[in-house]
Design brief:
The complex is a heterodimer of chains A (312) and B (111). Helix content of chain A is 47%, strand content 5%. Chain A is mostly helical and 312 residues long. In chain A, the strands form four sheets. A two-stranded antiparallel ribbon of chain A has the order 1-2. In chain A, strands 3-7 form a two-stranded antiparallel ribbon. In chain A, strands 4-8 form a two-stranded antiparallel sheet. The longest helix of chain A has 33 residues. Chain A is elongated, with a radius of gyration of 48 Å. Helix content of chain B is 67%, strand content 13%. A three-stranded antiparallel sheet of chain B has the order 1-3-2. The radius of gyration of chain B is 17 Å and the shape is elongated. Classes of the chains: A mainly alpha (312), B alpha+beta (111). The interface between A and B is medium-sized, with 25 and 24 residues.
């Protein structure tokens, strides 16, 4: 005989279904029972090629019959174990130590519930919240809100201490109130997180950062050329310009423009600060109109001319 | 008469009797029960009963290597099992006698 469930997938499936029906049994009990069933079902399967479920009926019925014949309790007749399991869990040493920790942490809850009460109050009053202390509502003002919050905390802690020392009992109403506050704590905490993450209101200042214009510019518009005039109204040519630090005011061509007339010093340096900038006629080294200039409005100057003092 | 109801009360005795006659593994016990005339005995009832009698100490079990496959778990009867079987025999004998008498009387009356 071959006799493994891998050779008979129908037996394996049937067994798995029976096993799940017996899920409530103790593991060792279930395993013993199913070991017997498995061997026997494989023996039976040897004798017939018919699907096992056809001969044995639904797995649930088979499991129920097995359970009843083996004298094992059915889950429907004994709902008690489930309850006692809960009670056992409640009485287990682990649960006891967990409860001790919770009792130690109770004062945290006393403070928290006071904050929740104040938050509910603020919500009812439609109050806004302090910006610097997001937990303090502006009831009247942030100052009064802080006072209300502190009073609530003192009151809540006093109540908690009274319950703890046994002079006052929480009672059902007290328990219900605590549960209610715990539920209200959820939106309160969410609101607090929102306010904290927002932080103080952001002031947006619009600072205009001027776009950098390469070369010379006047009020943001690029200057492509400079035309210096003498006080007599004569256009000066080949004037070299420097800034306040003595740096040449260079206007370099975007690309090396071969038609621009670039002055060259005796050291061989190109001078890009000479104005007005002139351009050669295409293909030559001559400037057709050296005196050309834009239309300049001109009125005679009446301010007396500065006199250069003789240099020492 | 509902045979399944009858079987329910008497399957312990039947299984003990089969095993007392000769040790056997689960499917073997089932086959011998059916061959004896209990053709409608349920597979699950027999395996469950074997398990319960074993747990209660009426049966013992041992593993026998098989030539053809994995080891088989055989059941044999214990002293406690024999005592239970003897008790079942006398109970059944008295019960059957009483019922036989009753049913035959009734048959004569109705005839």
């Amino acid at each position: 005989m071959s006799a493994t469930t891998t050779d008979r997938p129908d037996v394996a499936a049937y067994l798995a279904a029976v096993r799940s029906e017996l899920a409530d049994l103790r593991a060792d009990e279930r395993d013993d029972l199913l070991a017997e069933v498995e061997a026997s079902l494989l023996d039976a399967a040897e004798e017939s090629d018919a699907p096992i479920a056809a001969r044995l009926g639904p797995p649930a019925d088979f499991a129920a019959e097995l359970r009843s014949a083996a004298g094992l309790t059915t889950p429907t007749t004994t709902p008690r174990p489930r309850r006692s399991r809960l009670v056992d869990a409640w009485r287990s040493p682990r649960a006891k130590s967990a409860r001790r920790v919770l009792v130690e942490l109770a004062p945290l809850w006393w403070v928290a519930r006071a904050c929740v009460v104040v938050a509910v109050l603020a919500w009812l009053l439609g109050a806004s919240w302090s910006v610097s202390m997001p937990i303090v509502p502006r009831i009247g003002g942030a100052g009064l809100g802080l006072v209300v919050l502190l009073l609530a905390i003192v009151g809540s802690v006093a109540l908690g201490l009274r319950e703890r020392t046994g002079t006052g009992r929480a009672g059902r109403v007290g328990v219900a109130l605590n549960v209610l506050l715990a539920l209200a704590a959820v939106p309160a905490v969410v609101g607090l997180i929102d306010r904290v993450s927002e932080g103080p209101p952001t002031v947006y200042a619009f600072v205009e950062t001027p776009t950098r214009i390469p070369g010379l510019a006047l009020d943001g518009a690029p200057i492509e050329n400079v035309y210096p005039y003498s006080r007599e109204g004569r256009l000066l040519l080949d004037v070299l310009l420097f800034d306040q630090q003595g740096r040449p005011i260079n206007v370099r061509p975007a690309s090396n423009d071969p038609e621009r007339r670039v002055l060259r010093s005796n050291t061989g340096a190109d001078l890009y600060n000479s104005f007005p900038i002139r351009y050669f006629e295409s293909g030559t080294t001559s400037v057709a109109h050296p005196g050309a200039s834009p239309a300049v409005r001109w009125s005679p100057i009446v301010t007396p001319q500065l006199q250069r003092k003789p240099e020492r | 008469m509902d045979r399944s109801q009858l079987l329910r009360g008497t399957l312990d005795a039947a299984v003990l009797a089969v095993v007392a006659e000769q040790d056997g593994y689960g499917y073997d016990v089932l086959r011998r029960l059916r061959a004896s005339g209990l053709s409608d005995v349920g597979d699950a009832s027999v395996y469950g009963t074997l398990r319960r009698l074993y747990s209660g100490g009426a049966l013992t079990s041992y593993v026998m290597p098989s030539d053809e496959g994995p080891h088989r778990k055989y059941y044999g009867i214990t002293e406690l099992g024999r005592a239970q079987l003897d008790e079942a025999r006398s109970t059944w004998a008295a019960f059957a006698q009483a019922l036989t008498g009753l049913l035959e009387t009734t048959a004569e009356v109705t005839a």
